[in-house]
Amino acid sequence: MSRALERTLVVRCSVTHAFDVFSRRIDAWWPTGHRRFDGSTLRLEPRAGGRFVERSPSGEEAELGAVVRWEPPGRLTYTWFPGAISGPTLVDVRFVEDGDATRVEVTHHEGEAGLGEHWASRAAMFERGWGAVLPAFARFLEETKDGT
């Protein structure tokens, strides 16, 4: 397996709030520029085996991945189909208490994608994606504060 892409973000809220917003309110903060359909909604079904789905206003669905691990409030792991060749990549998100804040640790692995020699170029693409997605998550948390 190729080297994993790792990103860390510290947010000023509880672990529970960070997990809930990341997973259950993903549609509210995920950047519109990182969606397949204009005006779409995102949903991460809250259970192992659940789907990660984007739905267009006309009802068309794109399956983005599947929930592999659902361990509130500390860990969420899901497969990720966009950018894959034959199978999905794997995203592991951990929420760790860090004083009065939460450290969000994202590890994006090649998983079953079969990227091989293409992992480096795809990882660069994923790096740019996380460079937009995680700041959007942090901004949303800052705007909503804990529990709102």
Please tag this protein with its features.
148 residues; alpha+beta; Alpha-D-Glucose-1,6-Bisphosphate, Chain A, domain 4; seven-stranded antiparallel sheet; globular
List the helices and strands and how they pair.
Blueprint: E1 5-11, H1 15-24, H2 26-29, E2 41-44, E3 51-55, E4 61-71, E5 75-80, E6 89-98, E7 101-109, H3 119-144
Antiparallel strand pairs: 1-7, 2-3, 3-4, 4-5, 5-6, 6-7
In total, the number of strands is 7
Element string (H = helix, E = strand): EHHEEEEEEH
> What shape does the CA trace take?
globular
CA gyration radius, whole angstroms: 15 Å
What is the overall pLDDT average? 92
Characterize the main sheet. 7 strands, antiparallel
Which fold does the CATH topology refer to? Alpha-D-Glucose-1,6-Bisphosphate, Chain A, domain 4
How many domains would you count in the coordinates?
1
CATH architecture: 2-Layer Sandwich
Q: How much helix, percentage-wise, in residues?
A: 25-40%
Q: Strand fraction band?
A: 35-45%
* Relevant CATH superfamily: START domain
Structure, described:
It contains three helices and seven strands. It has one domain: 2-Layer Sandwich (Alpha-D-Glucose-1,6-Bisphosphate, Chain A, domain 4), CATH 3.30.530. By secondary structure, the chain is an alpha+beta fold. The longest helix has 26 residues. The chain is 27% helix and 35% strand. It is globular and about 40 Å long.
Can I get a quick summary?
This protein is an alpha+beta fold.
